[in-house]
Amino acid sequence: MKHRINPIVDCVFKALLGSEKNKNLLIHFLNAIIDFQDEDKITDVVVMNPYNEREFIDDKLSVVDIKAKCQNDFKYQVEIQLAVYPALSSRIVYNWSTIYHSQLTKKGAYKELKPVFSIWILENPLFKDVDNYHLKFGLHDVKNNIALSDHLTIHLLQLSHFDDNKDICNEAERWLYFFKKAENQDIDNLPEVLNTKEMKQAMETLQDFSENQKNYLLYQSRLDAIYERNTLEQMRRETEIELSLARQHIAKTTKEIEKATKEIEKATKEAEKATKEVEKERAEKEKAIKEKEIYLKILKEKGIDIDSLNLSS
Description:
Layout lengths: L9 H9 L4 H12 L10 E3 L5 H6 L6 E6 L4 E7 L6 H14 L14 E7 L11 E8 L4 E13 L12 H11 L15 H15 L1 H89 L12
Parallel strand pairs: 3-4, 4-6
Antiparallel strand pairs: 1-2, 2-3, 5-6
Helix pairs in contact: 6-7
């Protein structure tokens, strides 16, 4: 290929699995990840929000997901997520609930509701301490292992946890290998793991973005948007760190000021106490002097020779 193309960049990802010409790839991907078998396998899908390059040109921050329904009216959502943040879990559940809720019309009944499957491909792990790259969530009672309903299924594919050096055992792993390694592959010399009908077709989509000038410019604009977002996110994190350090410094300084203030107040009280003691001592001395003067005056009035008396000061 003329240029390297990363399949998890949003416009490429949407073209891979969300375009009409690649509808068979979406079917293959869904069957692989959800692991539908035999008569349960998806045979046809309707892409409800097909790939449209205008959404990427006009909106740098577009939410890129793929919504589809299959022959039995089950609903599917596939989304690529490059950034992981604390509220992502809530967003995943909210997006699932939005699709589930949208099935009911004003005249509808609960029995009309169909299962909704959400598949999230995460470049960075949401659950760092879990070794598994494929996590599956549903509605069930943990203690008794009883399912409340099969209408909620959420798959998380943590790309960073997938070992691309391992032997590929199934089609789900083949897709994960593709998402991690396809950027650096030569379409004319593919490794055995990518030398299948579906993977070759997926590589052709990458080749189109590589060699078609219009698509490559679109791809570059999306990369620029990602770099800009990452830069802003990095600046935000750095600002938060600086603010946190500043708050810590202010808190430390405030404590030191409070401590110094208390010490000053304590010293002031001690000084006031010492001053009062000095004033008290002076007052007592003045009182003693006055009493002595009165005593001497009385002695003098009585004609007593004061000098003959041994009076201490």
